[in-house]
Amino acid sequence: MTLFFANFQTGSAQTGDVRAAIEAFSRLRSRACCQPTRNLQSLVNSLAEYYDQLTVFEKRFEQTAPQHLEGFKWNDAFESGKSFFGKTQNSVSDIFLERAAVLFNYGAVLSQIAASQSFLTDDETKTAAKLFQQSAAAHKNLTNDLNPETLLAFSNIMLAQSQEAFYRKAYAEKLNPKALVKVAAQAADFYSEASKTMDLTKNYWKKEWLNTIAGKAFGFQAIAEFHGAQVRRFYFLFYFTHQR
């Protein structure tokens, strides 16, 4: 890192300036990647700030030989022992993988904030749906950097949860059954697609995850059929009444 930041300096730059730049960058990474916190919004902000800095420095890192960079250390995201990198802890001197790992965590924390909503109010439900969509976008943007099938599964799971939040909102607002059929059916489709993509990388996922996502797909299919039956019942009663 010393040699990297030295490349930014002019001939008259002091060693202290380089050291200060290294320390500032390290503190930023520490806040974003290494310090556990219960304040998820603060963590999201730190990840976004660090990601922005990585993007700014990316071209410079490209021009810097890998041996001039200290490895960026990351732990495995999967408790199963599987990893995007092939082992549970990794130290890589690759700015692109560092940026990808930060974006992965950013999407993961967004989903945590979304899941932490109580869904008791309209605003909370809309917030959850929006955050799940943002998380899906973050994971989808990573498919060129990490395992594409696994990241696509993450993205599909987030989209499914976003649609589930929309269903909760629609049901709470007592939308007519015909509208609820569409919302529930879309949630079922998203969960079904998520289940299919998870099956492509079964070894990464806990069995509970696989069962939960598959169960939600079947559950929302059943909900859609239930609302469909309500629609058919309404038309049957309407037709029967007008035939008498």
Automatic annotation (TrEMBL):
Domain BRO1: 1-244
GO cellular component: endosome
GO biological process assignments: mitotic cytokinesis
Top-rank taxon: Eukaryota
Stored Pfam families: BRO1 (PF03097)
InterPro entries named in the record: BRO1_dom, BRO1_sf
Official protein name in the record: Apoptosis-linked gene 2-interacting protein X 1 (inferred by orthology to a C. elegans protein)
Source species of the chain: Nippostrongylus brasiliensis
